[in-house]
Amino acid sequence: MIAALLAALFALALPVLAEASTQPAVAELTLLGEHAVDGMPTGNLSGLALCGKALWAVSDREDGTVYRLDTTKPDWQAEAVTFKAPPVPPSGLPTRLRMSSWAASFVRGGDLDFEGISCDAKGNQYLVSEAHVAVLQIPVSGDPKWLPLDPTLVSQARASNLLLHFNALFEGLTVNPAGDRLWLAAERQQRGLLAVRKRPVSWSCEGRCVLLAEGGAETLPVQVPRTRNMPRDFADLAYFDGKLFTLERNAYRICRRNADTAKRERCWSFAAEALLPARRYDAPYGLTEALSVDADGAWVGTDNNQWARADGERRPVVWRFAAPAGGWSAAP
């Protein structure tokens, strides 16, 4: 009787096992180089962008500085370029969240809390402010300006259970080369992806702003010694070859997604290299917050909050991973 019951249960499980076996394994990316970054006095590297042939970075603790990275030596030098942002437009966030961000700025610095940087083909830069859920454009010539985002962007996001928690707002952005379409990443609890397109008056949602909204927990890589599950999150975005790429911090992976629907198509892990014992931080969650993707590979930057790794390194670190075999657009 028991044997027959077990056989029946096994038969029922076969379709599930067969489906799981057809899912491609998440391949590990190959590390080409590791570079500590000097010259960012507050550290907290929170965004990377390849603008032409130059790599740029931003810190979430500095409101008026972007950094051009001198990559000619193994240890990189960050060269500060300053700007002055105009007053921030109203965010549409409730008072509770706005006051929490305001209070936090006195403790940690960085009222604007820039969490991502991107650029278009002309070299215009775009920075996303998490605290104010706003996007600043730094044009090649002229003064910085805040983009007139669709006024329903925040309300649609919150109706989808995004942007509900302090320090879990917009964590990354990317823009297409033409500079007329912009994607934003809501960080966690829930995480989401949103898109707007440039129109004569504002950056419009074209119906729905929210491409994806999802909650749930992520099973962490086996190398993580403590907590086994953390909330699903997005830490940054990149746009390359018509695809959207998400940096999924707690899962230690990069995923390719459809730029119109945000549907996940394929993922690649960097856990094997990031979680080598010497590279670990004493933190129960991932610390990679910056992503840039090109034909040859991906740059992944760490916002270490000035914590030291196991090997004693306290500076921000950027890794260079090779593109996967067949390129980023290869089918699973």
Q: Which structural class should the secondary elements be placed in?
A: mainly beta
**SSE series:** HEEEEEEHEEEEHEEEEEEEEEEEHEEE
Task: Please give the alpha-carbon distance between the first and last residues.
Answer: 43 Å
Relative strand content: 35-45%
Using only C-alpha atoms, the radius of gyration works out to 20 Å
Q: What's the CATH C level?
A: Mainly Beta
Reported CATH architecture: 6 Propeller
Brief descriptors of the model:
332 residues, mainly beta, Neuraminidase, 5-stranded mixed sheet, 4 helices, 24 strands, globular, DNA topoisomerase IV subunit B, isomerase activity, signal, Phytase-like_dom
What's the arrangement of secondary structure elements?
Elements: H1 2-22, E1 27-28, E2 31-38, E3 45-51, E4 54-59, E5 65-70, E6 76-82, H2 95-108, E7 114-119, E8 125-129, E9 134-138, E10 145-146, H3 153-159, E11 170-175, E12 181-186, E13 191-198, E14 203-204, E15 210-214, E16 217-219, E17 229-231, E18 236-240, E19 243-248, E20 253-258, E21 264-269, H4 271-274, E22 288-294, E23 297-302, E24 317-322
Parallel strand pairs: 1-21, 2-6
Antiparallel strand pairs: 2-24, 3-4, 4-5, 5-6, 7-8, 8-9, 9-10, 11-12, 12-13, 13-14, 13-15, 16-17, 18-19, 19-20, 20-21, 22-23, 23-24
